[in-house]
Amino acid sequence: MSALKALRLRKGRTRLDITDVLSYLYLFAGVIVMFGPVVWLVLSSFKSSGEINKFPPRLLPYKQETVQVEGYEEPLPLFEVTFEDGSRQILAQVRRVGLESQMVDPANPGEIIKVHIDQRQPVEQVYFGLENYIEGVKSFDFGRYLWNSIVVTVVATALTLLVNSMAAFSLSKYRYRGREAIFLVMISTLMIPLSVVMVPVFLVVTRVGWTNNLLGVIVPAAATPTGVFLLRQYMLTIPDELIDAARIDGASEWRIYSQVVVPLAKPAMAVLTIFSVMWRWNDFLWPLIVLSRSEYFTLQVGLASFQGELNVQWNLILAMTVLTLLPISLVFAFLQRHITTGIATTGMK
Amino acid sequence: MLVQPGISPKEKVNRGAIATLREISGTAVNAVYELVISLTDLVFSLIQRIIGIRGMPYIFVLPNLLIFGIFILFPMLLNFVYAFTGGASFMPFDRPWAGTRNFERLLTCENYFEPRTCSEDLFWRAVWNTASYVVIQVSLMVLFSLITALVLNRSIKGRGFFRSVYFYPVMLSPIVVALIWKWILQSDGLLNGILVSLGFNKLPFLTNAAWAQFWVVVISVWAYMGFYTLILLAGLQSIPTEMYEAAAIDGANKWQSFWKITMPLLRPTMLVVTVLSVIRAVQIFELVFAFTSGGPGTATLYLVQYIYNYGFASPNKQYGLAAAASLLMAGALVILTLLQLIFQRQEE
Fold first, then answer.
1. Domains in chain B, start-ordered, CATH in brackets?
2. Cis omega (within 30 of 0) on the bond before A287?
3. How far apart are CA B50 and CA A253, in angstroms?
4. Which of B31, B67, B227, B302 could form a disulfide with A223 if both were Cys (CB 3.0 to 4.6 A apart)?
């Protein structure tokens, strides 16, 4: 009996029991809760400014169909009209006067039919238009913000990797005076977030002359203790014999670092790359403080100030939000397995 | 490299071309890396010749130490200068000495549980808002990430997919998260639409204090739980399956093996998750800044926003108060971290 149980455990169940059903229910509810809001954002971003203010909202974006009628310059909107006798006909509206609407049959444009506006229903079709995106990009300097965000993310990640891996190499592969002290001071600041020292860091950045300069966003957070710690722990596992062998072969210390240790620490470097890209792309508070001129805004700062402006329509904000989350979502879609396993294995320590 | 499409089946050509392309780009990257190293090595070899091999570790740690010293360590010390001086000047040495006046102003209260009776009522409102937020948010965060990790740890079809689904919001920026939810929760939004079409009345999700606080908790759990789920899942997977098999052979049911094996062995991971989420929760700001910007009234005013308001946003900036408040907050974080260390000791 117990042996059978153990066997079943090892082979995996073939029949679904109640806990399996509950698990799948939980997971599918999770899919709706986690993805639903983003899907709703994307669907809404295609709605016209008239459609977006409708309450209660409809799931899909719609657009009223129009038709080109002989004798009228503009295309006319189509309605389905229900007459008193119950018959229905699709007509185009020429104009609306008060509660009355003047309509024509597209097949017979000469004759005007007058109907009460309650009798007509717009003829609509699902329509994913790019109008919001086009108009949004015009009023929201998307290209510039995107470029700034890319510069910040790429340069900051490269700098973080270089500076932190060098420090981690020094702290893990050499014995020298002051090493323990340096490591201790760095680790003790691990728990102190930037938000605690905002004011004095801003003073330093101002004195250096880096306000309204992407360098002011890039450099201060490049020496992250988290990164040093993560890389150091990994480099400790690289055997010292490899380094000694390279040294005997006459390699300089710089070549040992760049051609022996860094290639071997690739998995940890990859995790730090993922973290750094995530931090920098999504960073908001610090760029908000350092950058006050809009030509230096990153996407996050630009988006926040765009939604704070008066008279900005939700349909444009939503379209710009979609554009902002698109790049990181694409990165995630392609690298999700690496990202999740990387964080699960190294993120813990 | 161009290949004529007529010669061999198209797919084969494509695959061949991609492989070649990958090979070429791989060698190109390596060649560039090689070149950069050779060039930088000229400089570093020279340095090594001058200062000797014993000096090299200092050279390696120097760039990091410089940035760290200038932009983290030095500002931390400066923060003390700000906290113990007064006046409106931004330059630390133009500021008159104020002793502990900033701290006194923050900490003077007739009744600490009644922000109205404090000389800095906004500070205490922020303190209590943050404290209740941290307690509720962290409990929900740990609870939901634990449930999710346990479910994902079962033999589930499509585990990788579900794991990614829960992790996806972690990738989104706080601003994007705030805008997504603002759009759903606004008075004419999706959620009120659903309520109305079910025959209920609209609810003031963003304009009522209690609702706004509720949604800040929900949204932050939504946004970050995927991260903690991953860490807990890794903890669960490090528990050897032999232990469950042995327990099953000894006649333990699932419930017993959960409480006697899973929970005790998961405790270190749970502790890590709790501490990380507490530290993160204390610092809540960006999400709320774009979601309610502290409102309605002061319902969602949290500590970092209080510091930000006095340091950067308010027209009459009070750097001294902001710095004193941030030192108190740092003190709280240090105490929380020490508590974690003590718990960990007890565990071992």
1. 10-84 (no CATH), 120-317 (1.10.3720.10)
2. no
3. 13
4. B67
Interface of A with B in 308-347 (CB under 8 A): 314, 317-318, 321, 324-325, 328-329, 331-332, 336-337, 339-340, 343-345, 347
| CATH number for the segment(s) A137-346 | 1.10.3720.10
Please state the ipTM of this predicted complex: 0.83
Q: What is the mean pLDDT of residues A133-161?
A: 91
pTM of the model: 0.84
Q: What angle do CA A244, A245, A246 make, to 5 degrees?
A: 90
DSSP A117: G
Helix (H, G, I), strand (E, B) or coil at A291: coil
Residue type, B51: I
Task: Look at the domain A62-126 and name its fold.
Answer: SH3 type barrels. (2.30.30)
**What confidence score (pLDDT) does residue A310 get?**
65
Beta carbons of B285 and A285 less than 8 Å apart: yes
How does pLDDT run across B152-204, given as a tens digit for each residue?
988 888 888 898 899 999 999 999 999 999 999 988 889 999 999 898 998 99
Q: Is B42 on the interface with A (CB under 8 A)?
A: no
Residue B5: per-residue pLDDT: 43
**B79·A55 Cβ contact <8 A:** no
B297: left (phi over 0), alpha (psi -120 to 50) or beta: left
**Mean of pLDDT values over B27-38:** 89
**Which residues in A116-132 are b (16+ Cβ under 10 Å) and which e?**
eeeebeebbeebeeebb
Rg (CA), chain A: 31
- Give Cα separations from B31 to A251, A280, A337, B48, B255 (angstroms): 19, 28, 29, 24, 58
